[in-house]
């Protein structure tokens, strides 16, 4: 066996260049992977307007989750989620048992996650135990990554920063063979990938100062994907913001949902999820597209009304009386409201 020793040492390197194929015929990397990185899944009981073309919304949500689960099994790697497993993870009528059961069934078994603002009652982490996120914790489906409570795995040190907790630099670590990963739910942006007036401290080049000492970080909250130093090359911390896991808005039609494969060197390889079976409303009609975008913006603004269901529905019904709403969108909204009864 002595003469084969050098050849055996090459096997991991050869494996990192090999390709496997999924049952969809798409290539799957078989390089050594420490973890599968995801964020902003936003599971919801009702489909968003753009996805009302789906015949079965629960099945539409299950498809990418099953792909995520399959990748974790292929690589024998845990799943790490940077927040917002649910779109509204604490109001019973928006997060009923059927939706929690879907998460229990479809999320990978070894899932580590921080709570995002959409997972939390009124966006308050101190209320996390009143959320569906915490139901998954109690059921043993996910392991929570909490502030200043790092979890040490065999080759990975996980540091969680849930919504409301800013990351902090760490001293240069000396745990041999262990990669340090920061898992953060916080808004990060770069040029062309942020909202007007976004704080400068959240700009990637400034934000990276907060995660000095980490080999890699995965962030959630910004639904636009951002990649920084993914190939590593000893250039400091790599940053991966996957973006939205499920396309939910009209301006996300051309978005390619993605997850990340975290390598042993801190690099991240992007894996694009299969969206070939997704069904979205046809936005070739520019008037429909414009109206749908306005309606989505209006629905977003309604979240500021608080917990009053009556206020929400009254405001919505008042809005759809306006001529600016197209008949098709009006029909969708009215249908959705009626189903809530």
The strand line-up of the biggest sheet is: 6-5-4-3-13-14
Helix content: 25-40%
Just give the CATH class of the largest domain: Alpha Beta
- The ordered string of helix (H) and strand (E) elements is HEEEHEHEHEEEEHEEEEEHHH
Number of strands: 14
Q: Could you say what the CATH architecture of the largest domain is? A: 4-Layer Sandwich
CATH topology of the largest domain: Purple Acid Phosphatase, chain A, domain 2
Largest sheet: 6 strands, mixed
Overall shape: it is globular
Low-pLDDT parts are 1-25
Radius of gyration: 21 Å
Q: Please identify which CATH superfamily of the largest domain we are dealing with.
A: Metallo-dependent phosphatases
Q: How many discrete structural domains?
A: 2
Count of DSSP helices?
A: 8
- What amount of the residues lies in strands? 15-25%
Mean pLDDT: 83
Distance between the termini: 72 Å
Report the structural category. Answer: alpha/beta
What descriptors fit this protein?
single chain; 341 residues; alpha/beta; Purple Acid Phosphatase, chain A, domain 2; 2 domains; 6-stranded mixed beta sheet; 8 helices; 27% helix; globular; disordered N terminus
């Amino acid at each position: 066996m002595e003469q084969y020793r050098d050849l055996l040492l090459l096997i991991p390197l050869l494996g990192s260049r090999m390709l496997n194929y999924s049952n969809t015929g798409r290539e799957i990397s078989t390089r050594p992977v420490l973890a599968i990185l995801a964020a902003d899944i936003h599971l919801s009981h009702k489909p968003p307007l753009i996805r009302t073309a789906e015949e079965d919304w629960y099945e539409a949500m299950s498809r990418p989750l099953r792909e995520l689960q399959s990748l974790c099994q292929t690589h024998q790697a845990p799943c790490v989620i940077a927040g917002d497993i649910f779109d509204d993870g604490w109001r019973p009528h928006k997060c009923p048992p059927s939706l929690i059961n879907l998460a229990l069934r479809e999320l990978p078994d070894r899932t580590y996650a921080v709570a995002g603002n959409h997972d939390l009652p009124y966006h308050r982490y101190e209320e996390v135990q009143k959320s569906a996120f915490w139901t998954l914790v109690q059921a043993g489906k996910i392991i929570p990554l909490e502030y200043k409570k790092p979890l040490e795995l065999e080759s990975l040190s996980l540091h969680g920063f849930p919504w409301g907790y800013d990351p902090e630099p760490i001293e240069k670590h000396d745990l041999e063979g262990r990669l340090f990963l920061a898992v953060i739910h916080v808004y990060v942006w770069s040029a062309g990938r942020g909202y007007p007036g976004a704080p400068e401290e959240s700009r990637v080049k400034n934000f990276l100062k907060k995660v000095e000492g980490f080999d890699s970080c995965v962030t959630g909250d910004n639904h636009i994907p951002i990649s920084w130093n993914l190939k590593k090359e000893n250039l400091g911390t790599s940053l991966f913001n996957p973006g939205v896991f499920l396309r939910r808005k009209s301006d996300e039609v051309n978005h390619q949902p993605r997850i990340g494969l975290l390598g042993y060197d801190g690099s991240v390889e992007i894996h694009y999820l299969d969206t070939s079976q997704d069904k979205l409303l046809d936005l070739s009609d520019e008037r429909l597209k414009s109206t749908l975008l306005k309606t989505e913006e209006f629905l977003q603004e309604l979240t500021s009304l608080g917990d009053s269901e009556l206020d929400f529905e009254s405001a919505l019904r008042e809005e759809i009386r306006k001529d600016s709403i197209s008949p098709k969108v009006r029909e969708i909204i009215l249908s959705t409201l009626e189903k809530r009864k």
